[in-house]
Structure formats: C-alpha cells, structure tokens
Amino acid sequence: MRQKYALAIAGLLIVALTACNTVQGVGRDIESVGRAGKEVMH
C-alpha cells in the first residue's frame, strides 16, 4: 500500500516540476517577444 502512495506522489512531483519548467519557458518566450517589439518601435 505504501508503494502505491509513494509512486503516486513521485508521479505528481514529476508532473508538477515539468509544468513549472514549461510555464517558465513560455514566460521567457513572451518576454523576448516583448523586447523585440519594443526595439522595433524605437
């Protein structure tokens, strides 16, 4: 029974860490687009 809980928690942690990295990458992409747009306007 404990193994099932341990596997479930490990799976959730892996999914959570992957999601954080993905969101962080999207944030960087949006930031770089904003900088490029700002440079074009000036």
Topology:
Blueprint: H1 2-41
Q: How would you sum up this structure, described in words?
A:
The chain is mostly helical. The chain is 95% helix and 0% strand. The protein is built from 1 helix and no strands. The chain has one helix at residues 2-41. The longest helix is centred in the middle third of the chain and has 40 residues, at 2-41. The radius of gyration is 18 Å and the shape is rod-shaped. It starts with a helix and ends with a helix.
Which features characterize this protein?
mainly alpha, 42 residues
**SS-based class:** mainly alpha
Please state the CA-atom Rg, rounded to the nearest Å.
18 Å
Could you estimate the helical fraction of the residues in percent?
Answer: over 70%
Q: Give helix and strand order, one letter per element, not per position.
A: H
Shape type: rod-shaped
Strand content: under 5%
Oligomer category: single chain
What is the overall number of helices?
1
Could you provide a short overview of the structure?
The protein has 1 helix and no strands. With 42 residues, the chain is an all-alpha fold.
